[in-house]
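sry for the spam today, last one i promise. struct tokens for design, 460 residues
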């Protein structure tokens, strides 16, 4: 067999299983064969992967494309992703009427994105709940998100007036009807936050730690309890997205048991690599907040033991000027997709001894399984040849100027991480190498829409 591409003699990372040396042969964008180390094979292109990990391309399950520039985010943020070893992303799509907006938004992604992309639907109204089965089927979307932190006054300021527990419960009932359906929830008890916020503001606090103090971890945990309880009653799989606190994790551990609807947990790279005491000032404002070191350590334990199954970046590509100087008025969220892999390699593999196959599972195989994404996340014949080649020891210092994002800062700027993507391959084509986007990929973005099977299981 002659291959289009041969990735030769790498340390192949099999998510959740282990690492084995060998070569990967690619034909027409698919993995065609796994070969023993040193095996001879003919190929049009060869990448020498000795002493390199070869992992499935990362699929970032949590991004906000369009929060920087609606017009160009798919292009710029997919470049940043490609540089960092990410070959797929899921972004939250919100609008008044999902039936109208999803098609054009998908078309924009198809025109601009260098990597594959798919959607979660943001559910903020009764109309969204009612039209969900239709939209799920039409657009191949199995996942939604409900924003408990936009209840009441906090939601009204953003134009959301229908978010309450009834909307959550209706969404769970609908989610249970969709094949592969999963309801993600932003857990943060926004009704209690003012109890803490008012005295902090009155005291003139303007530091990052105050953002955690106004919404301490137990306010997330309280919402987690109710969401997993409602999920059980509605028989709907739930996903606690961007989990940030140790107490939340304990609640999930206690609530999980055979026979009830699954409880999934996602965390984000910043809850694993930054704390409320990191010297990044208001750049670190995010919802839920960055936490004390003890929470970071507990979340890593959750990643190691599998309680947490997926890790995303919660990428928000706004400009630096929106991040201050007033903590209470600054925007929440920051860019992170380009640094996702390096943060996890540095903090997880090198600092804590987390196996690379565990990182690979949380960033590829588990994401593909949870969100019913076909042909991704595993290195095996027949799967898409979405791969990232990693130098485990390459040191990189995060510089926003080299992230190729619409955003112009990073919460990690100036930090040096050990371990970096050196080649990113999408369906057999190199789309980024050594910290830069491939010129051909830049000129002709070839990302495809991730259509997920819903009711019938097969689509043509
Ligand atoms: Zn959220």
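last one done:
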């Amino acid at each position: 067999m002659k291959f289009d591409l041969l990735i030769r003699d790498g340390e192949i990372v099999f998510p959740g299983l282990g690492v084995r040396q060998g070569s990967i042969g690619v034909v027409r964008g698919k993995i065609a064969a796994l070969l023993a180390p040193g095996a001879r094979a003919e190929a049009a292109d060869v990448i020498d992967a000795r002493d390199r990990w070869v992992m499935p391309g990362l699929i970032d399950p949590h991004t906000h494309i369009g929060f920087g520039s609606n017009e160009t985010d798919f292009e710029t943020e997919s470049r940043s992703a490609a540089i960092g070893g990410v070959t797929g992303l899921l972004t939250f799509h919100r609008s008044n009427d999902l039936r109208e907006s999803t098609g054009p938004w998908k078309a924009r992604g198809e025109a601009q994105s260098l990597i594959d992309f798919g959607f979660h639907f943001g559910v903020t109204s009764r109309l969204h709940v009612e039209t969900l089965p239709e939209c799920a089927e039409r657009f191949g979307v199995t996942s939604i998100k409900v924003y408990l932190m936009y209840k009441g006054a906090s939601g009204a300021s953003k134009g959301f007036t229908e978010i309450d527990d009834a909307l959550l419960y209706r969404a769970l009932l609908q989610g249970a009807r969709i094949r592969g359906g999963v309801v993600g929830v932003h857990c943060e008890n926004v009704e209690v936050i003012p109890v803490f916020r008012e005295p902090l503001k009155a005291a003139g606090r303007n530091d990052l730690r105050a953002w955690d103090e106004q919404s301490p971890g137990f306010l997330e945990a309280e919402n987690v309890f109710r969401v997993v309880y409602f999920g059980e009653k509605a028989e709907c799989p739930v996903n606690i997205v961007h989990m940030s606190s140790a107490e939340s994790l304990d609640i999930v551990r206690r609530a999980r048991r055979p026979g009830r609807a699954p409880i999934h947990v996602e965390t984000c790279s910043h809850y694993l690599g930054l704390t409320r005491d990191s010297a990044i000032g208001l750049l670190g404002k995010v919802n839920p907040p960055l936490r004390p070191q003890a929470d970071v350590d507990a979340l890593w334990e959750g990643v190691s033991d599998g309680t947490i199954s997926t890790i995303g970046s919660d990428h928000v590509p706004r400009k630096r000027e929106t991040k201050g100087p007033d903590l209470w008025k600054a925007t929440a969220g920051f860019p992170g997709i380009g640094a996702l892999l390096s943060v996890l390699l540095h903090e997880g593999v090198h600092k804590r001894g987390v196996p690379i196959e565990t990182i690979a599972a949380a960033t590829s195989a588990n994401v593909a399984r949870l969100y019913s994404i076909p042909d991704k996340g595993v290195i095996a014949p027949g799967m898409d040849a979405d791969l990232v080649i990693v130098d485990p020891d390459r040191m990189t210092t995060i510089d926003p100027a080299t992230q190729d994002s619409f955003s112009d800062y990073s919460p990690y700027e100036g930090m040096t991480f050990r371990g970096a993507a050196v080649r990113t391959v999408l369906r057999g084509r190199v789309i980024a190498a050594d910290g830069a986007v491939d010129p051909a990929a830049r000129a002709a973005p070839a990302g495809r829409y991730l259509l997920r099977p819903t009711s019938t299981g097969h689509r043509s």
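Residues 186, 241-242 surround zinc ion (CB under 6 Å). ok im logging off now
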